[in-house]
Design brief:
alpha+beta, Jelly Rolls, 6-stranded antiparallel sheet, about 20% helix, globular
């Protein structure tokens, strides 16, 4: 009897869960470095030793606006230079290796979404999903810029996400220097951080999507901002699937009970 029940449940699972695999973003926790991600600029994988913890697992992605800038001080008090952020076409006039070209958002620059960005870093991944699935990730914006009431509007660094498919490219600002930051000092090397928050977006149609996430410098290049990213996932709708499985299991038990009663 158990073998029959298992077979029936397996059949229901095969027919009701095929879209879960399609929806999965690969390596969304960055446990395998940046495998399956395309990258541009200054990026690396960090652990909880960074100071802000991780949301899941041992790793998280870190992006920064640093480009040949002071990123640390060594044990002898000497400045350590680092960073490889990518410039914007807005500054260089060259599309190759630019943020705009990488994210395919050049149309947004003339509309003011990223028009003030001078350099930054971004990553992206393309995946297949079904309408109604929820795309989400955890993010933490960090900066050495002045924030809140002390901010300078000319130096408004920010983090963002793009979600695109064959007919549209949506832009979302995650945070900037006007965002609410933690009341305490950051436990990282940055002065300020928002703490981890969640981005969530319901995908409207079936098909292939590209998620892009990045952080940019605005106004001047010498003060660094960064972005931590973790737990990137596309979650299928589960209510209808679970209902079908439950109905299938109930039906299996009912059929077996009826069969057993008929034999007595």
């Amino acid at each position: 009897m158990n073998r029959i029940i298992f077979s029936i449940v397996s059949i229901f699972a095969i027919f009701t869960l095929p879209n879960a695999a399609l929806a999965a973003i690969i390596n969304g926790g960055f446990e395998n470095s940046f495998d399956n991600w395309q990258t541009l600029g200054d990026y690396r994988v960090e652990t909880s030793a960074f100071g802000s913890g991780t949301v899941e697992g041992n790793s998280q992605a870190f992006l920064s606006t640093a480009y040949d800038e002071v990123v640390d001080v060594d044990e002898n008090g000497r400045e350590v230079l680092g960073g490889n952020a990518s410039p914007a076409v807005y500054i260089t006039g060259i599309a190759e290796n630019s943020l705009e070209n990488f994210l395919d958002v050049s149309s947004f620059f003339g509309e003011g979404f990223l028009a003030d960005a001078i350099e930054g870093s971004a990553i992206k991944q393309t995946f297949t999903a079904q309408a109604g699935e929820t795309l989400s990730f955890a993010w933490n914006f960090l900066t050495d810029e002045s924030v809140s009431n002390n901010r300078n509007p000319d130096f408004n660094d920010f983090a963002f996400a793009t979600v695109s498919n064959s007919y549209q490219n949506l832009f979302f600002k995650l945070a900037d220097t006007t965002t609410d930051f933690l009341a305490r000092d950051s436990d990282s090397n940055f002065f300020e951080e928002t703490g981890f928050k969640t981005f969530s977006f319901t995908l409207p149609t079936d098909g292939e999507y590209t998620l892009g996430v990045g952080v940019v410098d605005v106004g001047e290049p010498t003060i660094i901002s960064g972005l931590l990213l973790d737990q990137v996932q596309a979650i299928p709708e589960t209510s209808s699937t679970v209902s079908l499985l439950i109905l299938g299991i109930v039906g299996a038990f009912s059929a077996l009970k009826h069969s057993q009663n008929s034999q007595h």
